[in-house]
Amino acid sequence: MESLINEVSTNPHIVEIDERHRAVLDFGQKSARKGFLTWRELTHLLDCLESCPMRHWQRLNEEQVRMATRAAFARRARPLEALACLDGLPGVSLFAASAVLAWTDPDRFAAIDRHAWRALERFGLVQHQPAGTGLCRQDYAMFNEICRMVGDRLDRPAHWVDRWLYTRDRLDGGVWH
């Protein structure tokens, strides 16, 4: 863990939150303040993930989304439970659910993806997953905890740490096949 903290603290400039990402963060946090998301708000956030086709979420209805997001936000202190509320929705993957949590509460939640996971593998903090496949909720709990611990030590949000890991892997030539 110390090698990761040292690396992040000596290279914090690699993280750039561009205008598009800042807008998503602002939208997510503002939308979540009321304690739930509407269908339109959730699908807007999910649409920001390039790899998620909209057709999967069109099956969701307003009541499902409000109930699931209200339950997730009520469980913010228990990341696995919060994640389960969202990735249990039809068409919402583990990756998408973690992104929604990170965009609505970036201090507490990190968004897991294959690039960030692979960066943690390089630091020896997590088990190797071929091409990042097979990641599950337990992996997310460990990933989120690492991002929160690093963030707490460096006075940064958990989501900033996941962006750092993502960027680090991309700079190292990280391409998934």
Keywords:
globular; Endonuclease Iii, domain 2; mainly alpha; 177 residues
Secondary structure class reads mainly alpha
* Mean pLDDT, all residues: 89
Strand content: under 5%
Determine the N-to-C terminus distance.
28 Å
The tally of domains stands at 2
Number of strands: 0
Low-confidence stretches: none
- H/I helix tally: 9
Biggest beta sheet attributes: none
Radius of gyration: 16 Å
- Principal-axis shape equals globular
Order of helices and strands: HHHHHHHHH
Query: Percent of residues in helical segments?
Result: 55-70%
Word description of this protein:
60% of the residues lie in helices and 0% in strands. The chain has two domains: 76 residues, Endonuclease Iii, domain 2, CATH 1.10.1670; 85 residues. The chain starts with a helix and ends in a 6-residue tail after the last helix. It has 177 residues and is mainly alpha-helical.
Quick take:
The protein is mainly α and 177 residues long.
Question: Mind sketching the topology for me?
Answer:
Layout: H1 2-10, H2 19-32, H3 39-47, H4 62-74, H5 79-87, H6 94-104, H7 114-122, H8 137-154, H9 158-171
